[in-house]
Structure of WYL domain-containing protein:
Amino acid sequence: MSDKLFRWFKIIYAIQARPGINAKELADRCETDERTIYRDLRSLDVLAPITNNGYGKGYTFAGDFALFPFNWTQQEAMVFSLLPSFVDQSNMPPGFDTAYDKVMAAHLRQKSRDREILQQVTDIIQMGSPAYREDAPNYLFQVIQAIVEEKTITAIYHTQSRNEQTEREIDPYYLVPREQRFYLIGYCHQAENIRTFRLSRIRSMEITSRKFNRGDFNIKSYLKNTWSIERRDQNIQFKVKFSPNVARYIKEEEMFVRPRMTDLPDGSLLFEVTLNHDREFINWVSQYGPDAEILAPTSYRKFMKERLSQWGKLYEQE
């Protein structure tokens, strides 16, 4: 199906570039036979208004239909921009120069428009750097641009746990919003593995010219059983009982996992979920105070008891 879809786009672009092109020429362009082209043209009738101008007159689009933008790859754009250097323009028909200039102008205008749209989107999104740090750099625009263009970035990143800054080469895969912050998930060349980076901890960054390929990376699989953003290779089965006072609010919570929730006869709620990390989940449960009781694992019941004891001691001193 992918080969057919690719061929369909080649047909549309060929007709757009050369109105009046015939079936044989389309077959040569698509490296197939005329019979296949005729079948494709019948199928494309529902997507584009392709018109047969009659015997020997080829195919055109009805009305003002056109497929934009060019969507050139970096290599295609470079090759086309160098075209005048490789052809003998003295043998080209009149109008070649102006036609070439118009095509390049349209391509550059589209790239400029894409950048403007991207900048407008990033200006609207007010996330990524704390409001109280007015001098903090915000690389949201550049990160999104690198993701879209599939280009490696170099960055100076502050690792909070070690309180140190390191230089990284990162293939940016996805930008994930969590709790009023943006996190970048991508391949770290230094760690030689997938890593998660908090956007506000990037101190400086540049987009390189090196392209990358995500391969078979799947963001849903990567974040499976992840409560928010922190993840490990664990398998913790939590059971929490929420009181009737907060049960209805728990059901309205927007979560990144799929817990099992069971209504109990007294109006309370049994909440069961399997996670690969504990910290973010424990913090979330703690905000409900005595309205949330961890039933399992038992080790976390002991942990909560010790934490409550420590908190209590803070307020015993007058």
The mean pLDDT is 83. DSSP finds eleven helices and eleven strands in the chain. The first strand starts at residue 50 and ends at 52.
